[in-house]
UniProtKB/TrEMBL annotation:
The active site is at 199 (proton donor), 334 (proton acceptor). This is Aldose 1-epimerase. It comes from Urochloa decumbens. Its EC number is 5.1.3.3. Coiled coil: none annotated. Belongs to the aldose epimerase family.
């Protein structure tokens, strides 16, 4: 395993001189019998760049109220920096996003032990989760509504998880200022927990603006959170607690900086979404706006939870164009199943069996407020 990982790292480092993120278009080279590529999806002035390394979003470019186009997601300047990355910039994380307490769980009286990469816990699928593997390009379509589909087969025992699992993700530009992410997973031979998430860091002022996100206006359509146990680890207690009267109340738009000092470590907690759903189970989950640029982002999704994270562990990471990402330089809105659901019978189910299909849909809608 260590040898294989070293080969991938070497190949990616060699590619850095040839491939640099953010140039648009497509670039690819053969790496360890895999093809590494950058793929731009564009509709007018609105565009995004993705790669099949970790099915990662590298850039999202959106005009502001003055017509100036900025990249509003944090990320590294070259693909080599994503190898062994622990910030998860733009990554698709899994097999199980968020945390599994103790790195163990039981299905049908059989215990499974997953790789513990966050103290005593498993975070985002282990040290080599879905963000640290090559995905195959299943389909790429250009035109007015371009999209690309990546696929990955997670093998039985990968990072300790049971069974072979087929996974698909499609990134699609759906309108002039909107794109969707659709993820499917299908267990082939054993029951397994599945909880995929998209881990983009947003800064609507622009990733390289030098401004943090504590002044953004954030609305989260949730009246409760899943509180975490004292002592660190960010493992839910199993309870569901109302946000009313607490610094976690974002039912109306508010700046995270207004009460972040009351939250130990900063915001990093799962919200229980309770907005009205459409016929497909999709609801508005969150709205973020930034006054100086006029950019507004709406997030719609079909998952029960949303992890709101204010980039508390960023510490001067160097990103695209030499931008330096200090603490709170970006925020994450990760729709998901609830953290540690494998241990909490009162949480929505996370274990899928052969014949069942996991689906996670997200729609990101931008608008400009003059």
């Amino acid at each position: 395993m260590a040898v294989g990982k070293s080969i991938v790292l070497l190949c990616l480092c060699l590619a850095v001189a040839l491939l640099e993120i953010g140039n648009g278009g497509v670039a690819a080279r053969k790496l360890d019998k895999q093809s590494l590529g950058f793929y731009e999806l564009r509709r007018g002035e609105f565009s995004m760049v993705v790669t099949n390394w970790g099915a990662t979003i590298l850039a999202v470019r959106v005009p502001d109220k003055n017509g100036h186009i900025d990249d509003v997601v944090l990320g590294y300047k070259d693909i080599g920096s994503y190898v062994n990355d622990t910030t998860y910039f733009g990554a698709l994380v899994g097999r199980v996003a968020n945390r599994i307490a103790g790195g163990r769980f039981t299905i049908k009286d059989r215990a499974y032990h997953t790789y513990r990469n966050d103290g005593n816990n498993t975070l985002h699928g282990g040290h080599r989760g879905f963000n640290q593997v090559f995905w195959s390009v299943r389909e790429r379509v250009t035109g007015d509504f371009p999209h690309i589909t990546f696929s990955y087969r997670s093998y039985d025992g990968e990072q300790g998880f049971p069974g072979n699992l087929d996974v698909l993700v499609t990134y699609k530009i759906d309108g002039d200022l909107s794109y969707s992410v659709t993820m499917y997973a299908r267990p082939l031979d054993k029951p397994t927990p599945v909880n995929l998430a998209q881990h983009t860091y947003w800064n609507l002022r622009g990733h390289g603006s030098g401004h943090d996100v504590l002044g953004h206006a954030v609305q989260i359509l949730a009246s409760a959170v899943t509180p975490v146990a004292a002592g660190g680890g960010l493992i839910p207690t199993g309870a569901v607690a109302p946000v009313a009267g607490t610094p976690f109340d974002f039912r109306r738009p508010a700046a995270p900086g207004a009460r972040i000092a009351e939250v130990e470590g900063g915001y990093d907690i799962n919200y229980v979404l309770d907005g009205e759903t459409d016929g497909q189970g999709v609801r508005k989950a969150a709205v973020v706006s930034e006054a100086e640029s006029g950019r507004v982002l709406e997030l719609w999704a079909n998952q029960p939870g949303l992890q709101f994270y204010t980039g508390n562990f960023l510490k001067g990471d160097v990103g695209k164009g030499g931008a330096v990402y200090a603490k709170h330089a970006g925020l994450c809105l990760e729709t998901q199943d609830f953290p540690d659901a494998v241990h909490e019978p009162g949480f929505p189910k996370e274990v899928y069996r052969p014949g069942q299909v996991y689906k996670h849909y997200m729609l990101y809608k931008f608008s400009i407020k003059k």
